[in-house]
Amino acid sequence: MKAIWNGVVVAESDDTVVVEGNHYFPETALHRDYFTFSNHKTTCAWKGQASYLSLLVNGEMNTDAAWFYADPKPEAEEIKGRVAFWKGVKVTP
């Protein structure tokens, strides 16, 4: 699977975990040069607290375009150490 934004592959892996229709990529699959820190956080009732990353590609910022659960609840343990995307990031085979 590939995560593509602004014409650039920002993550690539054959080992994604699908939860609620979202592909969670291993952290090691991220092309880190395109990711920047975000202070944004949200809470999911069954997964726990999500933290976000922004993308900076070709001079364009996509704020909070990726999220991860650093310490997911036990029922979501399979996504620990993994990152998912939204906000126009295309995930394709």
TrEMBL record:
Residues 1-87 form the DUF427 domain. Pfam families: NTP_transf_9. This is DUF427 domain-containing protein.
